[in-house]
Amino acid sequence: MGKRVTNFKRSRVNLAQRRLGAEVVFATDDFFAAKERLIDDPEPIFVPDKFDDHGKWMDGWESRRRRGGGHDYCVLSLGPEPGLVESIVIDTSHFTGNFPPEASLEAVCSLDDVSVSNAQWRPLTQKMLLEGDSRVTVKIHDQGPWTHIKLNIFPDGGVARLRVYGRRSVDWAKKDASVAIDLAAIENGAVAIACNDEHFGVLSNLISPGKGINMGDGWETRRRREQGHDWCIIELGHSGVVEKILIDTAFFKGNYPERCSIQGASVSSLDVSGLEADSSAWPEILSSQQMSADSEHWFVDEINKHESITHVRLNLFPDGGVSRLRLFGRITK
Length: 333
What we know:
Layout (H helix, E strand, L loop, with lengths): L12 E2 L8 E5 L23 E2 L2 E2 L4 E2 L9 E6 L5 E9 L10 E7 L13 E2 L4 E2 L5 E5 L8 E7 L3 E2 L1 E8 L12 E2 L8 E5 L23 E2 L9 E19 L10 E7 L9 H5 L4 E7 L5 E4 L9 E9 L3 E2 L1 E8 L2
Antiparallel strand pairs: 1-14, 2-6, 3-4, 5-13, 6-12, 7-11, 7-14, 8-9, 8-10, 8-12, 15-24, 16-18, 17-23, 18-21, 18-22, 18-24, 19-20, 19-22
């Protein structure tokens, strides 16, 4: 399980998710383990007695042993829109005698087929050392935007997962400001910034695409045994005015919050140390509303008149779980 967050924490969005349109589009070789597993959502597992026609089943991408020189690589598409990449995690969990000793990362921004060697790849990192059954987090300085990530392994071996953290890059100049959109959607560039607790459910689930698939596909805090209430902060994809709100408690039946409220403000710069305290004083755009189990709660007339905002704070009274938050409105240019 997770742990209680006692200080400001920026939550990251993994852009390498199938529900965001990500796909492993090419690998030089995936004889032992299919390239598609590289971006599976669950944490990698090890099943001691599981074998298939090619040998030991491994939860990740694994190439065969190279005998003629060269190295293996795979290519990940980040989906229909490019992403701004902040960091990448290379996870070799459970690969011990078969992990690649070195790796490097490259990227490209292209709408063309980049599964072959004709793409104009830009290096994101130099070669780095890897260890078996471990994770390495790489800070990316050239954040893009990028449409594809290339993972090179030297010379061969297995990698369990590749996580690409950042946010969607949106060309707002092409957006129609007269059309309402979900300002709090990952696909529109929103980011789950911080929360006081995410013990049972990851905060970024709250603004993920589609309907939640189960109780684990939402944001849920632990049972609060002290005074106060739980909260989270979302940075909108673009400044705007909210016209319609959805708070969805799908699958949360014995653990939904009793009430919820939303505050909002226009924040020109992020003061990491002061944002949490400042947000508690933001004006309410939705006063405290009664919640119910496993339901969609829509609000229009209940929304307070407000100026353009860039951030919102969702308050749970006193604790509990919410599957999705949607904030429909028009961007302000």
